[in-house]
Amino acid sequence: MAIDIKREGMRQGKVEQRVVYESGNEMAAYAAHQINYHIMGYFPISPSTEVAQFLDLMKANGQHDVVLIPADGEHGSAGVCYGASAAGGRVFNATSANGYLYMLEQMPVQSGTRFPMVMNLVCRSVSGPLDIHGDHSDLYYALNTGWPILMCRDPQAVYDMNLMALKLAEDPEVRLPVLVASDGYFTSHQKRRVMTFAHREDVHDFIGAQPPRGFPDVLDRNNPITVGPYMNEPDYINNCYQQSVAMYNAEHVYDRIRQEYAELTGRDYPILDLYRMEDAEVAVFIMNSASEIIKDVVDQLRAQGIKAGSIAPNMIRPFPQKQIAEALMNVRAVTVGDRADSYGGHGGNMVNEIKAALFTHGNTDTLVISRIYGLGGKDFYAEDGHNLFKFAIEAAERGYVEKPFDYYGHTPGDPAKAPKRVLNPMKYEDLKTGLITVTPDESTGKLNVRIPPLRSLTKKPKRIAPGHGACPGCGIFSGLELFFKGIEGDIVALFHTGCAMVVTTGYPYSAHKATYIHNLFQNGAATLSGVVEMFWERKRRGELDYLNLPDDFTFVMVTGDGGMDIGMGPAIGAALRNHKMIILEYDNEGYMNTGAQLSYSTPIGHRTSTSNVGKKQAGKLFHHKDTAQIMAATNIPYVFTGSESYPQDLVKKAAKAQWYAQNEGLVYGKILITCPLNWLSEDQEGTNIIDAAVSSNFFPLYEVERGITNITYNPEEKGKKVTVAEWLGSMGKTKHMTKPENAEALAAFEEEVERRWNRLKAKHESPYL
């Protein structure tokens, strides 16, 4: 196939290059490994997660020296990056959507104190409702953070912009952190032919082998500095002015850098990518991946005799106001496609900035049409491009814009077709069996629980309907349903983002038969706290009397897939306030909903997509946290661990959890569940693997009741103790740990398991520990 040199923007360069066939995420990682950054602080969120995964895989094989720091959440990852940049090194990050918003307050801090770094924003919808596909709603939040923003229409641009971004960030006239934006899934996951520098040395010749000298950092003992001081208004406005000057400097500095890059590679990225705009009478302004599709539409319209052209920016901060005004000088009408709305602003951010550009530079003749398109990853096809041009053509013919602002590609909706209830509410008498009794024992201060044979509880309806989309062998729902067998009466459940949430709530259907709420990882416990306290206050005021509730609700927050990492702070806050609720964590030892990245619950040595196994690395490098012990330290009434391999034990603990949550305060429970897809195990072996985890003392079954620890199953006393190695050998993700070359790591893991077990036994034996 012949390549249109004008369309591709390519010519012969001066450095040796090689051709690869990779995705946008792969090229972001590839550029980062060639730069050989000092530090990457990161937290996984789709669709940017792969960037860290690819870097970790290369790290495991010894291809770079980047120190990858898995944070507790995006806010933490931004803090890691800020500290690392203040310490004078080169720093890298990648994120998306709500993850970007979670770190948002750190963004102006970094730019306002003038520490350079590069972050890839793999653009994705900002919830709610939750949508993980690509639009620009996260990107538009970045516009006022003081970061220059470079745009990437394809994987080639992702690679090239990542190299230019660091040079721009470190330039003495700029000294700002730089954002590199690409479209989630459209660019991040689709593979294309990409030209790269063949040799790392040439990359370093372009960007500089070391960060520029002569700028303050916190590691210079001969020049101690104060970073981020408190400023009153006379100084603060001056600081902001200097930052503004640096931002506008970024425009001409970028222009210089891109010309230098074009000489080296033959690929040029002018601030505006203008296509057939020389004599255009109608145009479409559109960004990133859609801008390549629109060029085909321009060609088709030109073949029909219509003077069409397109504009796509390669930089939107600083906004190329003058260049856009000049490009539209002779255009009769332009349709601006925004892939996000500025709600209430009569158009997205780009259309309003373009209107301001035209007004500022005296162009009052070009008609401007605003259309919001492609939200939530809705595909953009050539026919959509034709429709955007149609709006401009009709406006040019009429001499006015009939509808200045609208959405494009939406369906207004028909009230007659509103979703209907599929599952009827469960009957209270079916949920309140009376088969489980819980009575306080005044002599021991503990609860006595009587449960019937488990088959007697099978008549209780399942609280989660069959038909959800979980993977074969997933242990989440068998574990949750077993726990719920011990809960009598009605519940209100909140689910963090995670596998359990995603596979049960695909609109317009829901597998939840009880009332269900979703909120993001970091705020679930706080959200349910609000629900709980509103229930009790409305009940006190008599506002719920009309419901004739036979019993109070049991409020349950379900978390997992790393939710007790990013959500740890609010969970501890809820525990210290002692709300009457249950926090139930299903522990599958990773962030399985985003592709099996390591979490702080992943044990040492285990293989995940961000703790790979290779010649330079053998799985996760640090121990897992003991969440149950952390929560026990908050002095809540009841903490427990459970497993579906010991069903009577789990049902009994569920009954206790309900009593404490309704009568005394917050309960935390942790159940180990299997994930065959990412544990690399057979679907049918889940219960056996969990049993081995319990019997090896890796996941001991115990409870902490009013501060007193009680081991509820001791494999040593039962004569069923197995070795840690036996358990590890049952999963593909850990078999490498049983090999001779990893004997030292295995021994360290076994020693830690034994240490925690002996400490637990000591607590079991003494009420004061």
UniProtKB/TrEMBL annotation:
<keyword id="KW-0813">Transport</keyword>
<keyword id="KW-0479">Metal-binding</keyword>
<dbReference type="InterPro" id="IPR033412">
    <property type="entry name" value="PFOR_II"/>
</dbReference>
<keyword id="KW-0408">Iron</keyword>
<dbReference type="GO" id="GO:0030976">
    <property type="term" value="F:thiamine pyrophosphate binding"/>
</dbReference>
<keyword id="KW-0004">4Fe-4S</keyword>
<feature type="domain" description="Pyruvate:ferredoxin oxidoreductase core">
    <location>
        <begin position="280"/>
        <end position="384"/>
    </location>
</feature>
<dbReference type="InterPro" id="IPR050722">
    <property type="entry name" value="Pyruvate:ferred/Flavod_OxRd"/>
</dbReference>
<feature type="domain" description="Thiamine pyrophosphate enzyme TPP-binding">
    <location>
        <begin position="553"/>
        <end position="658"/>
    </location>
</feature>
<dbReference type="InterPro" id="IPR011766">
    <property type="entry name" value="TPP_enzyme_TPP-bd"/>
</dbReference>
<keyword id="KW-0560">Oxidoreductase</keyword>
<keyword id="KW-0670">Pyruvate</keyword>
<dbReference type="Pfam" id="PF02775">
    <property type="entry name" value="TPP_enzyme_C"/>
</dbReference>
<dbReference type="Pfam" id="PF01855">
    <property type="entry name" value="POR_N"/>
</dbReference>
<dbReference type="GO" id="GO:0006979">
    <property type="term" value="P:response to oxidative stress"/>
</dbReference>
<dbReference type="GO" id="GO:0016491">
    <property type="term" value="F:oxidoreductase activity"/>
</dbReference>
<keyword id="KW-0249">Electron transport</keyword>
<protein>
    <submittedName>
        <fullName>Pyruvate synthase</fullName>
    </submittedName>
</protein>
<keyword id="KW-0411">Iron-sulfur</keyword>
<dbReference type="GO" id="GO:0051539">
    <property type="term" value="F:4 iron, 4 sulfur cluster binding"/>
</dbReference>
<dbReference type="InterPro" id="IPR002880">
    <property type="entry name" value="Pyrv_Fd/Flavodoxin_OxRdtase_N"/>
</dbReference>
<dbReference type="Pfam" id="PF17147">
    <property type="entry name" value="PFOR_II"/>
</dbReference>
<dbReference type="InterPro" id="IPR009014">
    <property type="entry name" value="Transketo_C/PFOR_II"/>
</dbReference>
<dbReference type="InterPro" id="IPR029061">
    <property type="entry name" value="THDP-binding"/>
</dbReference>
<comment type="similarity">
    <text>Belongs to the pyruvate:ferredoxin/flavodoxin oxidoreductase family.</text>
</comment>
<feature type="domain" description="Pyruvate flavodoxin/ferredoxin oxidoreductase pyrimidine binding">
    <location>
        <begin position="31"/>
        <end position="257"/>
    </location>
</feature>
